[in-house]
Amino acid sequence: MKKLVFVLMAAIAFVACEKEVDDTMMDEKSAKSKLDLSFDGLSPLGPNFRYEGWLIVDGTPVSTGKFNITPSGQMSPRVFNVKKGDVEDAAMFVLSIEPQPDNDPGPSSTKILGGAFENGMADLSIMHGAALGTDFAGSMGKYILATPTNGSDTNEKSGIWFLDLSSGAPMSGLDLPMLPDGWIYEGWTVIDGTPVTSGKFMKAMEVDMFDGFSSQENPGPPFPGEDYLMNAPSGLSFPTDISGGYAVISVEPYPDNGPEPFAIKPLAGMIPTDAMDHYTYMMDLNAASFPTGMAKK
Prior knowledge:
Elements: H1 2-30, E1 32-40, E2 49-57, E3 60-69, E4 75-76, E5 79-83, H2 84-89, E6 92-99, E7 111-116, E8 121-124, E9 140-145, E10 159-161, E11 163-164, E12 171-172, E13 174-175, E14 183-191, E15 194-201, E16 225-227, E17 246-253, E18 264-270, E19 281-282, E20 284-285, E21 292-296
Antiparallel strand pairs: 1-5, 1-21, 2-3, 2-6, 3-4, 6-7, 8-21, 9-10, 9-13, 9-19, 10-16, 11-12, 14-15, 14-17, 17-18, 18-20
């Protein structure tokens, strides 16, 4: 009988000890651990959006918290306290853009940066498959100066159209990859230091979504572009001469976060100060502008 009692007591002690070990392991997993994030080239978001980090743990996204970028380019905050177990088990980090306020507990479709953890570090890029996942290495851009919406030979250097006239007939001037959900292209002209939109578009061979500066006398060509003839933004006067400015194609979150060009600008080029109208000009690949980041466990 004494032997039976001893065995029972030993079994109870073993179970209690095992439970204590399990509880300790659970406590350790639930404890907070620091995740250090750093980014280069991210744009400040408007008041209705925030960046949000995500750890991918066993295929499930776990939020690391939201933040914004200050006008001076600083991240606020930078270090986040996350469950130790999630940090240890995370295979990837992904950065998304979320609405503010946000009623959806999961990440939006607008994912900008991603990277896999190796030795506790994850190099983050837009080309990672869990993020934007788009390679712009083969992108190409051409444009002309013209104002077709108010007829010919009138203020011809006050408009830009992303098309190619080098063959004698208008052809698409843009060769760009299709974007995933949550992103859209936008054309820009920097006029006297001010970026002015020429319109958003999904495909290079179609009319863009904006004509608010163009004349209504004639339709524009079936390509992205804009005549800067009316309704000038504050500080500018239309018609104008965009020679000496810049032509830019950006990749924007969709829905958009603000009135300025976003950080991802795959194509850009200075418009010559002695630019000629109806002459085809080339744009440069601008991969150095792409945002990057690092996540450190």
